Amino acid sequence: MKTFFVIFVLFAASLAASGAEADGQWKCEQKPAKGVTGPSIFIVFDFKTNGAKLAGKLVISGPAWNAEMAVMDGRIDGHKLTFSTVAENTHGAITTIYEGLIEGDKFSGLSRREGGKKLKPMPFLALKQPPAPPAQ
Fold this sequence. Notes:
Layout: H1 2-20, E1 24-30, E2 41-50, E3 53-61, E4 66-70, E5 72-77, E6 80-89, E7 92-103, E8 106-114, E9 122-128
């Protein structure tokens, strides 16, 4: 019984540590998929974790627009993060699914759309930003 308890505590601690490394801001430049022309978009992922749950927001900017979306259905499984965002436009709701891995100060993976204009899955690589200095 003691062995089981120790293993359970270590497992729970490892989950908490994995989620904690996701907390904070991550910035990326997402270039168009191969064969697609157009400008890059810039994404700031702002994550907050609570155990295996992921919350926060994304701020996306491009040459002609800006958007802020809430992280929805966010989950953490070890170093893997999955979540979605929903944006509304004249064509209706567009859900984007993000799946990626955190390795040190890098968060990389693929985003894919559901609804709206169908696009190929887009790779992304975001870098962890240092925390802002405390206000004085």
